Amino acid sequence: xxxxxxxxxxxxxxxxxxxxxxxxxxxxxxxxxxxxxxxxxxxxxxxxxxxxxxxxxxxxxxxxxxxxxxxxxxxxxxxxxxxxxxxxxxxxxxxxxxxxxxxxxxxxxxxxxxxxxxxxxxxxxxxxxxxxxxxxxxxxxxxxxxxxxxxxxxxxxxxxxxxxxxxxxxxxxxxxxxxxxxxxxxxxxxxxxxxxxxxxxxxxxxxxxxxxxxxxxxxxxxxxxxxxxxxxxxxxxxxxxxxxxxxxxxxxxxxxxxxxxxxxxxxxxxxxxxxxxxxxxxxxxxxxxxxxxxxxxxxxxxxxxxxxxxxxxxxxxxxxxxxxxxxxxxxxxxxxxxxxxxxxxxxxxxxxxxxxxxxxxxxxxxxxxxxxxxxxxxxxxxxxxxxxxxxxxxxxxxxxxxxxxxxxxxxxxxxxxxxxxxxxxxxxxxxxxxxxxxxxxxxx
Length: 444
Prior knowledge:
Layout: H1 2-23, H2 26-36, H3 41-64, H4 67-74, H5 79-105, H6 109-132, H7 138-162, H8 175-186, H9 190-210, H10 213-249, H11 253-280, H12 282-290, H13 298-323, H14 327-349, H15 358-384, H16 390-414, H17 418-441
Helix pairs in contact: 1-5, 1-9, 1-10, 2-5, 2-8, 3-5, 5-6, 5-7, 6-7, 9-14, 10-11, 10-13, 11-13, 11-16, 11-17, 13-15, 14-15, 16-17
């Protein structure tokens, strides 16, 4: 139900953001260093020890902190539950990411994909079992997650041993030199990581404080559903990153222009199709997948679905800035918009402002996302000396929105069943559009 689910999501998001902050960007440094060349075993052991130290420090802080201070962040959530959540989320995040980095660094991606699928299936089986037994609670859910990633770790170690996967090298290890490597890599990222933490923390804390656990649940299901678009276009962005980086290295700006124009256009059209489809079917999705207890989440759900449009452009722009080594521009723009977000969110939600519900946060994200994507598009257009094509994008939104509405109306005429409607929309609308966009991409 919304209250319990809202509490679970709040604990998960806040603790995950705390773990990312405590890592100080060393996770990215570790993957970069082991991808460059194999490192001695002691190098890996030092990094693993650093991760354990992070957990111990956080456990100590949460154990000795005054209850009043803990309640300020987690409200009525028990301290014991926070500690269990911290251990579970540390294990899931640290083990999966670290082992993923190891396998990726030696180009053994298939094993990490097999492990991820296996652990997802195990999770589904365990969750369904405890639901059937009517025993599922937040505490038990975190315990299940901790158990799963211990199994994950043991299985991964066995794979490394049995397949004789080598990710170390025999050479002298210099502790001081390795620490300095991590320090110099992570130092520029600290301010950005801190701001991202505050941005994530502040929005969720405002919802939990001024709206409550139900509002947190309504906001969370919308955010989770919006990741459907990110899952699909993220693979395109990796290819885009590689090709743009290579073209920049070869000083082939015409190729860079060609890739940016075509990829941004296709990603924009696809995301708009998917976002508007989810927007029009949002009432049916909530009713059939979440139940009547979540019917009040309709507005925030629709706003977040629309937010995926500027969000996808923002991801593309960020990839472009990083691929072209314009990290300073990317960091500056991101920091400015995140800092602007704080007072706007407080004004929209708090008792000293307009006292909107979770939809206020969603509206803020949508508006700032639109403005941010326009600013980024302007900077990239200047860099490539091309037009921004804003009017063209507006026409695409209107045309796609109208086409999606017609498809939604037709699907409702065909059947009252949500699953039949989904299949009709997928086969007659989303898949043909996807195929058309794929054919357009082939010219690259």
